[in-house]
Design brief:
Layout: H1 14-34, H2 46-58, E1 63-67, E2 77-81, H3 83-107, H4 110-120, H5 123-129, H6 131-149, H7 155-170, H8 178-199, H9 201-207, H10 212-215, H11 222-240, H12 249-272
Antiparallel strand pairs: 1-2
């Protein structure tokens, strides 16, 4: 259910692409430093959005540089670092752990078990740094698994569960912005969950796997599902616009107003072929 909250690269100018990739590389670099090389394989652009949002809101001091790495050994890549880049790196590892564990339980993929082991080595350290967020991740993933096992026929119940998870991730400080960020994350999480259900409908039906729309007994209905997504993203952007963002605002706008829809359409097209 990750990988949706990405930029529409075709609409970014050169400076925005450089900034976006520098944040992404900064997170990747910190995953290596705070976890291990193998954990970098679970890196998601969703976490670049998380870091950019918090950086824009709180405007921390940054350090930056450029260097080659094991994944890009020839050409140096620019990176940035600050407390929110490091936070995004930790959240990426925690989310990747539970995602890999879920894949192992569902499909018994050996690679998923190996990756869960790689991520899990550093989970205790991350939980010590961010207990609230990690408790929310563990609790919401557990509740989602239970709902899926029960063949829950209410998409809102599952979507709200994942929305709660996203809401807690967006809240870094328990300050005046926390309620807005939590509501924004709830709506964004609903969009991701419902979008994932719509995208995977045919595959889940073929493989007899859980899907909330299948549990409802619905036939494929792209128009209806798009309406759900429009409502969720409208709520997300409504809360987003309440934040006093200046730095990287255009890049964040690109992600929420264009990137998430571009990615959803691409994934739907891939599912049909």
């Amino acid at each position: 259910m990750f990988g949706y909250v990405t930029a529409n690269l075709q609409e970014l100018d050169k400076a925005q692409k450089l900034r976006y990739n520098a944040v992404y590389c900064g997170i990747c670099r910190q995953i290596r430093e705070r976890a291990n090389q193998l954990s970098r394989l679970g890196l998601s652009y969703d976490m670049a959005f998380l870091a950019l949002l918090l950086m824009s809101l709180y405007e921390p001091e940054e350090i930056s540089g450029d260097r080659a790495c094991a994944l890009h050994p020839i050409r140096p890549k620019k990176w940035v670092d600050n407390e929110f880049v490091r936070y995004a790196a930790d959240m990426n590892v925690a989310l990747a752990y539970y995602n890999a564990l879920d894949d192992w339980h569902d499909d018994k993929k050996l690679t998923a078990r190996l990756m869960a082991g790689a991520y899990g080595k550093h989970l205790a350290e991350i939980e010590a740094r961010y207990p609230r967020q990690c408790r929310a991740i563990e609790r919401c993933i557990r509740e989602l698994n239970a709902l899926e096992q029960e063949n829950c026929d209410n998409p809102d119940t599952c979507a709200n569960c994942f929305g709660t998870l996203m809401g807690e991730l967006l809240v870094y400080h328990q300050d005046m912005w926390a309620p807005i960020l939590r509501d924004m994350g709830m709506a964004l999480g609903r969009f991701v969950y419902l979008g994932d259900a719509a995208r995977d409908y045919r595959r889940d039906k073929k493989k007899h796997k859980y899907n909330p729309y299948l549990a409802m007994g619905l036939q494929e209905d792209p128009r209806r599902w798009r309406e759900y997504l429009v409502l969720a993203m409208a709520k997300c952007t409504q809360e987003f616009e309440k934040l006093p963002l200046v730095q990287d605002k255009a890049l964040l706008d690109n992600i929420l107003y264009s990137g998430v829809w571009t990615h959803f359409r691409q994934k739907k097209q891939e599912e049909r072929h």
